Fold this protein.
Amino acid sequence: MKADGVLKHIGRTPLVRLDRIAAGLGAPVLVKCEHMNPGGSVKDRLAKAIVDDAEARGVLRPGATLIEATAGNTGMGLAMVAAVRGYGLVCVMPEKMSIDKRAALAAAGARVVVTPNAPPASPDHFKQVARRMARENDWFLTDQFENPANVRVHEETTGAEILEQTRGRIGAFVAGAGTGGTISGVGRRLKAAIVGVRVVLADPEGSGLAGWVETGKLGPDGSYAVEGIGGSDIPGNLHRDVIDAAERVSDEESFEMVKRLAREEGLFVGGSAGTNVVAALRVASRGDIDEPVVTVLPDAWDRYRAKPWMQAWGATSL
Ligand code: PMP
């Protein structure tokens, strides 16, 4: 048996009801606390799943180097798995991602390659750089955007846990999409178990994914500050057939909600959690759903302390 140390403690995260922020709405809002995973985010699940799958297929030699294009959280999950299992790690990150994430990855022993904030077709785009470096160096590209082990782990763990924690009573599931693993995997699992459950994409204003959900064509490409979700290309792990609708959320609404989650619910989470909760509150307040609306808190706020939106709350005046 593998000596898996901390990796055994990934998942089985709490599901918490928003008692104050969602009080008086048509349906309760429940949040899955993925920021409480040992590596600090929802991405711990897929980091372990992708490495388990590659080991089982015999494609990972002992001591091999893993490489990933990451907004930072998958990198931290992989750093944890690499430490426990004895692999090297290279993380390719766009410049936009917070300095806190870069510093944490380097401190955890990863080599960090920072790329310009380039469009998907550019050879400088972080996904293209990771793909090229993997090929040139014979490193293992964990490929969270395309690797089906990502969706599968959310079907088998996150989705299954939510079903158990709600005893199958769910009106809607709401989540943003970076790789699409969370919304596709959880959405698929819930739809297989509950007739009529609605799956809603929470998308930052400026991302093209909401338009794609609604019309099949990517919406216009803009910029936004929330990290880890939205985008201007469709990853293989984002499955449109399980998504019923999309909600667009501005940066201001997302960051304001992060502050409210901290000050009214005691939940210390990152920007994409704010996006998810704003969208979930909208879904719960329309009056056409009475069963709980479930969403996820993908990561914790300590990865964003240096960001202007968090600095603006007064931390700099101390
Ligand atoms: N929030 C954050 C902060 C993330 O880093 C990610 C993953 N990039 C997500 C949400 C979205 O998760 P998924 O990749 O499963 O779509």
